[in-house]
Amino acid sequence: MDDLMHNDPARVIEADRAHVWHHMLQHRALETSDPRIIVEGRGMRVWDITGKEHLDAVSGGVWTVNVGYGRERIADAVRDQLVKMCYFAGVQGSVPGARFSEALIEKMPGLSRVYFANSGSEANEKAFKMVRQISHKHHGGRKSKILYRERDYHGTTIACLSAGGQMERNAQYGPFVPEFVMVPHCLEYRAQDGLAGADYGVRAAEAIEEVILREGPDTVGALCLEPITAGGGIIVPPKGYWEKVQEICAKYDILLHIDEVVCGLGRTGTWFGYQQFGVKPDIVTMAKGVASGYAAISCCVTTEAVFEKFKDASDPMAHFRDISTFGGCASGPVAALENLHILEEEDLLANSTRMGAYLQEGLSQLMEKHALIGDVRGMGLFAGAELVADRATREPLAEKQVQAVVADCLRQGVIIGATNRSVPGFNNVLLFAPALIAGRAEIDEILAAVDGALGRVTG
Known about the structure:
The chain is an alpha/beta fold and 459 residues long. The chain is 39% helix and 15% strand. Its EC number is 2.6.1.77.
């Protein structure tokens, strides 16, 4: 029966339509159109069940498949490991867990401990729990507040949405967990005070300090930020921002938690996004690119100082009393280790930097051609183009028109992304995150599709 179904696309489509609850999709649309089912991927290209080929400019739709599709060595390593030892709860160790942790920490000077889980949301939950437990154990429960930034995103659970700066993602899911407090965004293109460059960078960081002082420094335990805001519009913090943020955290004894779920493992051209800015975090979370989607894995990585706060044999409640069931699956770390080796052997971080510059240059040239593009920004193979109805006023282009650009590219066989149902009034940024194996030919194909789509949207 399975073989018959595999060879019968119509049956697969109907089974999907009848039984699968898709992510982030209004299913009314599937009453009049077929679900898109992806059946194969090689390199940067995927094929759907109808046989149509697409160039994937968003690494699996959500910025995950960093080393591209069809990597047999990762699949083979996972297969061999699962036959030998597939799973044991994380209270015990594993060979791939130990090996990958060692290899990962070598890329993260100043950090030392890796806690395994299976999704970015879960990794951030672990970090939030660590902060809260440290508050109870070492600060009498006082330093329990966690600050997060407007337009940043940290996951789908209720606690992660409580730390989410995208109001449309949060809508209808409250009430939220208390003592999560928002600080202002740092998008220079839409600067709150009309400043620019380092002046705005320092001012945007000072806005965080103002929130800390308002809440009371002795009540704030951590500041959770993306190194580059991802789904909120590809926001690269201005010069001076991260230096001032680090200074503020040290001044008030606040743990700095960097969410690298999107930027981690080479996306920006360094192993982690925070390394672009000289930041020294206390906690780093990661997922997506850790194993490039070949297995489910996330990590919450801490300094030894954070780890030591949970070591107290005299207190039976002192250790981190947490477990992630599938954090014990051996497929994650073994896939992650092979993924890391590929990134090293093929020098994909350098390629991300090189091809990212080429992508940015191409988008900037399109900006000269198309008045709809108001701003181009990004780092490495992670770029955004903000679309506007009027460059002079910077009025955002309507979300419907932005999605029309995405749909036009899809018809051309190129999959790009865009902010949607995230930031009220500002779902107007095209998103690009091609696999780190991208070459000039693939970037040219992406740019040509966007060029054509923008021309047709403007009529």
